[in-house]
TrEMBL record:
<protein>
    <submittedName>
        <fullName>Ggdef</fullName>
    </submittedName>
</protein>
<feature type="signal peptide">
    <location>
        <begin position="1"/>
        <end position="35"/>
    </location>
</feature>
<keyword id="KW-0732">Signal</keyword>
Length: 297
């Protein structure tokens, strides 16, 4: 009797194990597809983040695959975010192109802002315009302290040109440092400063009127190295968007871009050119359709 009970007990356990194993195998493809289809991205904290997420969705709108999106709950430093994308804890981030970033992460080498990020105008303190009116050359600019993010690709570019750069880990702190006199100017992509002035309306800041600092600077979507299929999906979609005109329509319809091009008046500014020594050899500088030509504006 004991043997029969013991045998029935073991049979029941094996049946349960088999049932659970079968259920796991049936659910596994769905679970993997869900995990692979979820895009975990950085927090949408600025209008630039909204633009980049919209561009990502534009690229994926040409894909047959279904994707869902999950936003981070907090704003992370660039260093931490880069590490999390590299390890696969986050799926994607966006920042300026550099050899260092392209070695760590998987870039989609389509300049999201058509190189507009490489046209930098300055946020300055109200009342300081006369000082900048006297700047005519790059040597003149070297006497001005410029604020930048500690890990930004732009920071290395400015330093390589011999410019005086003061850094901070997080972007919001730079606006307060500028007003507080820690540095004298905050170079921004031409589409950025007007919205930022609205965001920081309580600070005594304005946009400098006469200068534009120019260098080649793509701004890329970067994916975790484990997300090669997703990156290819996005790249393929954006190439199709370029070919059918959707990319340019999205770019020029962006309120910040449209407002910036109207207000910056780039053609009337004194141009100071510097090199970008951090450009990857794979930067698509030979594809004019990817870059903004201010002479065509």
């Amino acid at each position: 009797m004991r043997r029969k009970i013991r045998f029935a007990y073991h049979t029941l356990n094996r049946t349960q194990v088999f049932a659970r194993l079968l259920l796991t195998l049936l659910l596994l493809p769905c679970t993997q597809a869900f995990a692979q289809g979820r895009i975990y991205h950085q927090k949408i904290d600025r209008s630039q983040d909204s633009y980049m997420l919209g561009l990502l969705k534009l690229g994926l709108s040409y894909s047959d695959r279904d994707y869902s999106f999950q936003e981070d709950s907090e704003v992370l430093s660039r260093t931490r975010l880069t590490e999390m994308v590299a390890t696969g804890e986050r799926t994607v981030m966006w920042t300026g192109g550099s050899r260092q970033m392209e070695a760590k992460l998987l870039p989609v080498r389509i300049p999201a802002y058509k190189g507009l990020m490489g046209h930098r105008v300055f946020l300055i303190r109200q009342g300081d315009q006369a000082r900048f009116d006297r700047i005519e050359t790059l040597d003149d600019l070297r006497y001005v302290k410029l604020g930048q993010g500690h890990t930004w690709a732009d920071t290395a570019i400015l330093k390589s040109a011999g410019l005086n750069v003061v850094t901070a880990l997080k972007t919001p702190g730079l606006f307060y440092m500028l007003e507080g006199g820690r540095f004298d100017a905050f170079p921004r992509g031409v589409h950025e400063p007007w919205q930022e002035m609205r965001n920081y309306a309580d600070l005594n800041l304005t946009v400098e009127k006469g200068l534009v600092l120019v260098y080649t600077m793509p701004y890329y979507l970067y994916f975790s190295p484990s997300e090669e299929a997703l990156a290819k999906d996005v790249e393929s979609g954006l190439e199709k968007a370029i070919a059918d005109g959707s990319f340019d329509r999205y770019f020029f319809a962006d309120p910040d871009v449209r407002n910036a091009l109207e207000r910056a008046q780039l053609k009337s500014r004194r141009v100071l050119n510097i090199d970008n020594p951090n450009l990857s050899s794979k930067t698509p500088i030979d594809r004019p359709e990817l870059w903004l030509d201010i002479n065509d504006l």
